[in-house]
Design goal:
The protein is mostly helical. It contains five helices and no strands. The model has no long low-confidence stretch (mean pLDDT 91).
């Protein structure tokens, strides 16, 4: 992982404000913390499917991925 990217705030992601707030409520502040979560974990936190998909796409564009995304 690029150290510069993973230290950035989740606010840099192209997702809804509601999605950003849900991440922050669950103490996910930077991208490295986000990459340690799976799609299922994000859904259980209350993120909408659209936000989860947008997170995946944003991470892929940066060359990153969510946990267990290669399944």
């Amino acid at each position: 992982m690029s150290k510069k990217i993973v230290k950035q705030s989740v606010e840099k992601l192209l997702i809804s404000n509601k999605g950003i707030e849900k991440l922050k409520e669950n103490e996910i502040i930077n991208i490295s913390q986000l990459c340690k979560k799976s799609k299922e974990e994000l859904k259980r936190m209350g993120l909408e499917l659209k936000d989860v998909r947008d997170i995946e796409m944003s991470l892929k564009l940066a060359g990153l991925d969510l946990k267990n995304s290669n399944q």
